[in-house]
Amino acid sequence: MSWLEQRIRRYEHARWTTDDNRRVFPFEWGLEHIGGRRDEPDPRGFLNAWVPETLSNSDNWFAAPPAQDYVLHPPENGGTGGRVLTFTSQIVSPWPENNRVHARFFKARSSGPAVVVLPNWNAKWDGQLNLCRWLNALGITTLKLSLPYHDRRVAPGHERADQLVGANVGMTLQATRQAITDTRQCLRWLEQQGYTKLGLLGTSIGSAVGSITMAHDRAVRAGAFLHVSTYFSDAVRTGMTTMHVWESLRARVGEDELRRFWAPVSPVPYLDRLCNTGQRMLMVSGRYDPTFWYEFTDEMFRTMREKGIDLETLTLPCGHYSLELAPFALPAGLRLGLFLFEALA
Is the pTM for the entire model greater than 0.85? Predict the structure, then answer.
């Protein structure tokens, strides 16, 4: 192990330890969140039938017409925080707070290119604003979505988005589906405002949400994604930041089972939908990432290239958290900004 890798891994571990509010929740099947019964006597049998049916009908499962109650609110913080778009989510979860979608709107022009920004898991309300402003400087309007159960959408009694990635199998499926349909409703609003060249920018779980959205929405011309993996379950099972989630899951489900159960919210099953569409993708990764292991990222790159998907990649000698630091943030930000500028021109 090189000195740089050692240094990066020490930093990643130190950043991970700064969050002391991770809670280990009990395992639940949560089938009531995906059309089943809470007391289903054979949850494995239910999921083994439900998953292939859902994958074969993913267009319907992820369908999202425009919301009926879009409201663009006045600027916050004297205008520097952008305007806030709200609307009612198509997915009805048990928490009203989560069912009201919030997205921050940073306008560069009145038409032309626009990008929906999909942050990382447990991102803060003020996170990634510099990224939005960088795209604005390039003439690209941005709409930064608050993912389900984040910041203003957090469930009562929770400090983190425990429902989006958690030990409740059905709830995780519903919450990730909600993130995708919320994203598509943001795209529909941008179209209503006159933006015709649409893109996505996702980070970590935002990359999974973005790539699945892109596979189901031809209005998306390009997607730039920071930190990517293959299957949702593999990232949860092996990642440093999700150790507390896997701690509950591993006693009740095996690796192959969970990969199959969470396949509908994983990018891999939908890659064929990205072939020969004219859509362009950029994926940026960290070779020393302990959250999204590079072996999964590299597998994703190879699979996409074998399928002939229009893919550009950038791999930097950093990790998950350290990508946002100098010197790594500069080439990553420059590359994704110029990629989106060119792809949406």
Answer: yes
